[in-house]
Write a structure and sequence with these properties.
With 196 residues, the protein is mainly beta. Helix content is 0%, strand content 45%. It has strands spanning 3-7, 13-19, 52-59, 65-68, 74-77, 81-85, 92-97, 108-110, 115-120, 123-128, 133-139, 144-149, 153-158, 162-167, 173-178, 187-188, 194-195.
Length: 196
């Protein structure tokens, strides 16, 4: 069964969607054929994508990002709050106050089975589960503008165009560069490849 988070129709709501089918049919492969001499009737291609159906909807304030926790629940981060939602019912299982504003939907990742890392404008932070105990890994000297995380790396950009790469969960600076333009979006792999 495949699962996916999808933004709902109501502003600020979160909808959990779950696949009802086993996925797309397998590809028929790339066989070389002679070009047809006459047009052939098109066969029914079958389903193009799995069918999704809403399971539940939860109204949340200032939704910024949502991801699945390693144990299966849904974690959503807003401007100032983190919610853990039950994957089956959408019920709020726990809530924590964030100390800063998340820098976009890609600025958060689970670095292990119990630790969520995220970047706000002031630093790199973690929240440990199940206690929801926050900690600051690294404080920035100036306010960051953009960030992206993978389970092993964080990339952070500042208004000046400076871009820095950090290891996770250690928050050790691994390198950096100056972008010729202010980055509007960032992405990073566990190996440290950075796209802007």
């Amino acid at each position: 069964m495949t699962a996916r988070i999808h933004r709902g129709a109501l502003a600020g709501s979160l909808v959990f969607l779950c696949s009802l089918s086993s996925g797309c049919p397998p590809s028929s492969g790339s066989r070389e054929q002679a070009p047809p001499t006459a047009p052939e009737p098109r066969a029914d291609p079958g389903p193009r994508a799995p069918a999704y159906e809403p399971r539940w909807t939860v109204e949340v304030d200032s939704h910024r990002s949502a991801l699945f926790a390693p144990w299966g629940d849904v974690v959503t981060l807003g401007m100032l709050d983190l919610l853990v939602l039950d994957r089956e019912t959408g019920a709020v299982k726990s809530k924590a106050r964030l100390k800063g504003t998340l820098l976009g939907k890609h600025a958060v990742a689970f670095v292990d089975s119990e630790t969520l890392a995220f970047v706000d404008g002031r630093g790199l932070r973690t929240i440990h589960f199940p206690s929801r105990r926050p900690s600051e890994l690294l404080k920035f000297e100036s306010r960051a503008q953009r960030a992206a995380l993978s389970p092993a790396r964080a990339v952070v950009a500042w208004r000046s165009g400076e871009v820095a790469l950090f290891s996770l969960p250690e928050a050790e600076r691994l390198g950096g560069f100056t972008s010729p333009e202010r980055p509007e979006s960032l992405s990073v792999t566990d190996e440290g490849l950075v796209a802007l």
